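Example record for the data management plan.
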Amino acid sequence: MAQLSTALAALSADLGELLAGLEPEEIPLTEVTDIWAAFAELERLGAAGKILMARRVHDSRQWSREGFAKPEDFFADRGGTSTGRARSDLETSRRLRDLEDTTEALRRGRLSAEQAEAISDAASVNPAAEADLIDEAKQESFKNLKDECGRKKAQADPNPEATRNRIHRHRRARTWTDSEGAWNISGRGTVDQGTQFHHAWDQLVDERFEAARRAGAREAREAYAFDALIDLARRALETPDAPPPGQPLDENDTQPAASSAGSTPKRTNPKHLALIRVDLEALIRGRVAGDELCEITGLGPLPVRVVRHLLGDSIIKLIITKGVDVANVTHLGRGVSTAQQMALLWTDPMCRVQGCHRTKLENDHREDWARTRHTRLDETDPCCGHHHDLKTYKGWAFVEGTGRRPMVPPGDSRHPTQRAQAPPGAAQISPSGTSSHSGGRAPGARHQRIST
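Corresponding structural encoding:
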């Protein structure tokens, strides 16, 4: 293996020499994207090598001989990264020992370090899901991949109640000041408790965002999110009915436990506003089986018992798989009906554009409502504001088909206008898959914004 070490050293030297002469401003703009992509590929391959070797470096005990208390401290020091990142890479390396397909995909540069971490974490618990998750990584965003990994992992969980209780027991929140002097915060807990936080937090973020927009100010939404976080703490101190600081949560409940004096917390407004996706059989049975779902959209799986509890204390949009069949219902209004909206969210609560994970959506009619005078699910594509603007103002369009699929610019060969101009005998796109307008916003067009 000395040859491998020598070959890697030579590659590193060549790359170093190349970088020494790299002057980004001198490279023509027509070439910069390809060069960046080549560096990205090198980065993926380099990260793959680091992950594959991590477990062997651990076994060598070289980190101990050099005075490091833990192997992740050694990796972080040598790699110039955080101990958390180094720890994750080491755990991924260990899991990959038993996951041949994921290892091969990582070797060939088809998976990034983060993708390999998520897939190996789920596949180590649910090995049957490995191939599906690798395929998912090829076409979906990292956020969507992580969500699917969570679902596959939950499907193989023999005792989701015990899992939730374990997460609750190890719940944590910590703050620290970094080297620049900035305050940071991190937390971890159960999904159902997280939705309580998100309901209050998102409202304040929207309030600040709208106020800034009216005032003509422009900042990143993350900035308003931080301000809203501080508002939450400030308002809690100003609210007379707020529960005492530090009041514990019952491990088997989502509500604050009774105080030592025996009093029960005062119930005020509902604490949750969430979209729960659950199979009817699972809700009746009390647990999920097979491919059944029980999750809070955008956050992840949770035990059926928790859903049953939330139903009594929450504003819930409950979607079940055996409810009103609205798949082929024609609604004469411009906007989708409530039942249709629920069906759309059940089918896919995210932007219909493949690879996009945004959940603040606008329902777009493939055929202009001003012409059809009706709304059908099979003629509706929910998409985020960004992709909706591309379609409305820039002429982008979905490729032929239904469900999650790519959206392409006018010059792409898959664009409906290109398909329509194809030679005789070539596949033609159906009218229901075309964009209803490609220039300015069409008169009477309906763009209903929704969020989960």
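Summary line stored alongside the record: The two ends are 53 Å apart (CA to CA).
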